[in-house]
Amino acid sequence: MTFVLLAALSVVGAVIGADLVAKLGISANTSVVGALFAMLLGRVPVAGLRRMRSVHRQNLAQSAISAATFASANVLLTSIAVPYVFGRGDLVWPMLAGSFAGLLIDAWVLYRSFGSPLLPADAAWPPGAAAAETIRAGDRGGRRALVLGAGTLVGLGGTLFGLPLSAAGVAFLGNMWALLMFGIGLAVAQYAPGLLGTDLTGGFIPHGVMVGAGLVALGQAVHLLLRRRPGRAAAGTTAVDPAVRPTVDEATLRRTLVRGYLLFAAGAVVMAALGGVLGDLSPLALVGWVLFAAFAALVHELIVGLAAMQSGWFPSFAVTLIFLIAGLLAGVPSVPLALLVGYVSATGPAFADMGYDLKAGWLLRREHRPWDAFERAGRREQFRAALVGFAAALVVVAVLWHSYFRQGLIPPVARIYADTVGQGLDAPGVLGHLLLWAIPGALVQLLGGPRRQMGVMLATGLLVATTSACWFVLAALLVRVVVRRWRGARAEEELNLVGAGLIAGSSLGDSAQLLKAG
């Protein structure tokens, strides 16, 4: 019964995601919708459906539908549109095979590394926290449900009036230093062009900041991986809550990322063979292309995942564009570069989305004793639920892509990628801007360290540039400081519930508006 429900929800989510990204250029976060639907089914007086009252089955439902939505919209349909817009419709099927392989590897790497010192389970992952609180409030009721419900109604109302209240919700949940930099980035992106008379995006300033921050974040991750501390995951026995201890030690994380790189390289080889790239490149150039594609895919997913972990936003488009620019600067031919961009863009969104889902499951399972075996089994079932969603997304995109593209319904992001590949860049000017603005990004990232990811968050704010969101982030952070200073731990916990409600309400409102518009 659970599998049938997951399959049905996955198909619905995949269709919604594909339709919205084709018609509107954006997709909805359907995880809360899936959880609410599972809650309603659990209250239907039918014997088989009553099993859906389990918060863990509801967690599987939201995992499956969100995986299907993100996979169909942000990964598969967007990536296959790149060679199509570029005028190579014959490369759509090879690109679909490559992007699906990248999607599976992407999710597997996150599944194996979630709960590590690099991607800790007790980090913010705000949409995941919102989904968990929604499920838990629906199960328990009481004051928590009232506070969460009030936050959800406010978030829903704010969405209807065009207010980015989800930004305030994220600020109630995430790391304060990281979100302070996120708010500063949002403010600079909104007001600097008018005050200074400069085009930030045209000057590749946000991209340069992300390059610097991303390179330092990569170095910090490598330093973390090279540290040898045997038994670290088992250490810390004095912790009150065993759920906050790392479940993935540094050695396991190191093996996972190395295997992920090798798998990404294998996927690039398969895509190159299917797409005819073998004939466009010399043997040495082909080896370089494969190694660069694997490196870009792995780094892309890590940067996107770190930003999503702290803020709930993932700058996939901007980071992919950085690697596109790097390919142009390196002189990669147009067709291999188009395939590389599609392949890289397929990594990251699923990485972030699965992080949200595993965070929700971690919160729902953390009170169970014995905890460790139960948590590992729960993550495994969530990964299987995501695979159901991925399979549904593959079928839906394979069936619908030709109809959408024939009508001219192309994801706008794919048009930008294809146009950039076709037109090229003024290499000296772009490279100079990227290197210049990489310096402040690197310095801020160094200042914050690997836990806060301040440089990545500053660049994310510059790239997201949501109007007025900076004020909601900064005001929410001020409220957190006041509550923590004068009201105590219980008030701060209720503030977390309000934040989860704002995110859940905004997600429901965005989904409703997008479905209506689509």
Explain what you see.
Mean pLDDT is 83; it is low at 231-239. Helix content is 78%, strand content 0%. It is mostly helical. Helix 8 (176-196) packs across helix 18 (454-464).
Question: How are the SSEs ordered, and which strands pair?
Answer:
Blueprint: H1 2-23, H2 31-42, H3 55-85, H4 92-113, H5 126-140, H6 142-160, H7 165-173, H8 176-196, H9 205-226, H10 250-275, H11 283-311, H12 316-329, H13 334-345, H14 349-365, H15 371-406, H16 412-423, H17 427-452, H18 454-464, H19 469-486, H20 489-517
Describe what is shown at a glance.
The chain is an all-alpha fold and 518 residues long. Helices cover 78% and strands 0% of the residues.
Residue ranges: pLDDT <50 for 5 or more in a row?
231-239
- Overall mean pLDDT: 83
The topology string of helices and strands comes to: HHHHHHHHHHHHHHHHHHHH
- Oligomeric state of shown chains: single chain
Termini Cα gap: 31 Å
List keywords for this structure.
518 residues; mainly alpha; globular
